[in-house]
Specification:
The structure holds two protein chains of two kinds. Chain A is α/β, with parallel strands linked by helices. Helices cover 33% and strands 23% of the residues of chain A. Chain A has helices at residues 5-13, 26-35, 58-65, 116-127, 144-152, 169-176, 186-193; strands at 16-21, 43-48, 69-72, 83-86, 92-97, 100-104, 131-135, 156-160, 182-184. In chain A, the strands form two sheets. Chain A has a seven-stranded parallel β-sheet, sandwiched between helices. Chain A has a two-stranded antiparallel sheet with strand order 5-6. In chain A, helix 6 links the parallel strand 8 (156-160) and strand 9. The longest helix of chain A has 12 residues, at 116-127. In chain B, the strands form two sheets. In chain B, strands 6-2-1-7-8-10-9 form a seven-stranded mixed β-sheet. In chain B, strands 3-5-4 form a three-stranded antiparallel β-sheet. In chain B, strand 4 and strand 5 form a beta hairpin. Chain B has helices at 4-9, 13-27, 36-49, 54-63, 65-75, 86-100, 117-128, 144-152, 157-170, 191-194, 227-240, 258-261; strands at residues 106-111, 135-141, 154-156, 180-183, 186-189, 197-201, 213-218, 241-249, 264-268, 273-276. Chain B is globular, with a radius of gyration of 20 Å. In chain B, helix 2 (13-27) packs parallel to helix 4 and helix 6 packs across helix 9 (157-170). Chain B has twelve helices and ten strands. Classes of the chains: A alpha/beta, B alpha/beta. The interface between A and B is medium-sized, with 24 and 27 residues. Chain B: Its EC number is 2.1.1.80.
Chain lengths: 195, 279
């Protein structure tokens, strides 16, 4: 399928890529991280739900396979324009301002910490319409409200087609509140990112 | 009714500044060095929970001292766990306690202790290491309400259940319930684990050194402060530590300031455990 000119233009113009997923999204995120070009010149922020107390090897695995500079976020880290950042387990990731993250340990949202909603809402306030946000497979409804805020602020919002997702609840929740500019299959999302 | 524009745009930086000034003037609490993103999120949360517009919130903060206590509780995050980040406790047990055991007394300070879970975790750790008789743990917080909970040392069974997994990963023998008396749907920490503890109010921003410590733990508190305030409190901790005493920050809170990197030696970079060295 040929992607339309609007979505391509908006993706190219965006400065920040927000990638979020829960159950059933790991492989897709890994694929994206592996193939994003070294000179993407966008800030990439990944929020993936995961269990606490398991020293996850996600950062290590992702970093070893990424051509971009990739790291797990620590409190007050500086946001660079050509790097991939992964939200740590057990904390919410907030965008303090265009140049800085800050972390938060308050109560989980939709039983999740990190919560996709929290980071998306924060990104909508700080980055306004400069984001491309992609919500992938998952089994709850985290991310939908945040995605709607991003859409309302002018960012490009994309949801994985529920029929294409391993877990359809999270994409459905976003589609149901009209938070998606586009509903795409994983292959189309990769085509857009050219990964 | 919540105004549409407020809903879409949220509180402006001017609104936040106005609230910070009101709270400072009337109640003497200074939130000006708090991280703006989380402060805004917490204030928005209070407004949503209480269905308040910005104007009503200001009015209540000025006129209702009871509301202010509630506001303080909501704005300062009081989420804590026993044995939070169990690998931290493992590191304390294997890397730090052998060193501390050579001291005559072990005074520990849990700063920002909230409802006391960390104080009792330390108490259990010290007891299991046979160091309880020479140790004393101070727990401090700015919030009097959470300190009341801390002093009681009674937690719901639901919470204890969620702490049980942490305990298991901490590498301590037995199970967490070995340290509690179960009463219907709650669990009370054993009296002997409370004997060497003291809880009191202390404001990290405005209060000063009150004792000399061998160990200070302040985990997941710095994330709520801007960098300049973090440095101010690092200085307070530095002055409160005995020579070669230990400072523990949260696992995502490293010492960033060059000035302080020289004054502390990194003992464990993953768990952010530091030791005070020469100035």
């Amino acid at each position: 399928m040929e992607l339309n000119a609007d979505i391509k233009r908006r993706w190219q113009n965006s400065k920040v890529l927000l990638l979020a997923g829960s159950a059933g999204s790991f492989k897709l995120l890994f694929h994206a991280v592996k193939h994003l070009p070294r000179d993407l010149n966008k800030t990439v922020i990944i929020i993936i739900h995961r269990k606490k107390n398991f020293f996850s090897e996600i950062e290590k695995l992702f970093a070893e396979n990424s051509r971009m500079y990739l790291r797990e976020i620590s409190d007050k880290d500086i946001i660079d324009s050509n790097s991939i950042y992964i939200a740590p387990a057990n904390y919410h990731t907030l965008i303090e301002n265009e140049k800085q993250f800050s972390l938060d340990v308050s109560e989980p949202v939709w039983y999740s910490k990190p919560s996709i909603d929290v980071t998306f809402e924060s990104a909508a306030e700080v980055f306004k319409g400069n984001c491309t946000a992609i919500l992938l497979s998952g089994a709850n409804q985290d991310g939908a409200e945040g995605l709607l805020k991003l859409r309302n602020n002018g960012s490009l919002t994309i949801v994985q087609d529920p029929t294409d997702a391993e877990m359809r609840d999270m994409p459905m929740a976003a589609i149901n509140i009209n938070a998606a500019d586009y509903v795409l299959k994983a292959s189309e999302i990769f085509q857009l990112l050219e990964v | 009714m919540i105004n549409d524009s407020t809903e879409a745009e949220g509180l402006t930086p001017t609104d936040i500044n106005e609230l910070v000034n009101v709270v400072k003037k009337i109640h003497g609490f200074d939130f000006s060095g708090y991280s703006k993103a989380s402060l805004k999120r917490r204030i928005t949360r209070v407004m949503q929970l209480k269905k308040l517009e910005f104007y009503d919130l200001k009015h209540l903060l000025v006129n209702d001292p009871v509301f202010f206590q509630h506001f303080l509780e909501e704005v300062t995050v009081n989420v804590t766990e026993m044995f939070r980040d169990p690998h931290f406790y493992k590191a304390l047990n294997t890397q730090i306690l052998p060193y501390l055991s050579t001291f005559q007394h072990i005074k520990a300070w849990s700063a920002g202790c909230s409802s006391g879970e960390e104080v009792y975790s330390l108490s259990i750790l010290l007891r299991e290491a046979g160091l309880q008789n020479k140790s004393f743990i101070y727990g401090t917080d700015i919030n009097t309400e959470v300190l009341k909970e801390a002093k009681k040392g009674i937690y719901s069974l639901r919470k204890i259940k969620s702490y049980a997994e942490n305990y298991q990963y901490s590498g301590l023998p037995g199970t967490i319930t070995d340290h509690f008396t179960i009463l219907y749907d709650a669990a009370s920490i054993h009296t002997e684990l409370k004997q060497n503890t003291l809880f009191s109010v202390h404001n990290l921003i405005s209060d000063n050194v009150f004792n000399e410590f061998q160990l200070i733990s302040c985990r997941n508190v710095f994330i709520y402060f801007e960098s300049h305030l973090q440095e101010k409190i690092l200085d307070l901790f530095y002055r409160s530590l005995c020579p070669l005493g230990f400072l523990c920050l949260g696992s995502k809170e490293a010492i960033r300031s060059e000035a302080f990197k020289k004054r502390f030696k990194t003992i464990n970079s993953k768990e952010n455990i530091y030791q005070k060295i020469g100035a």
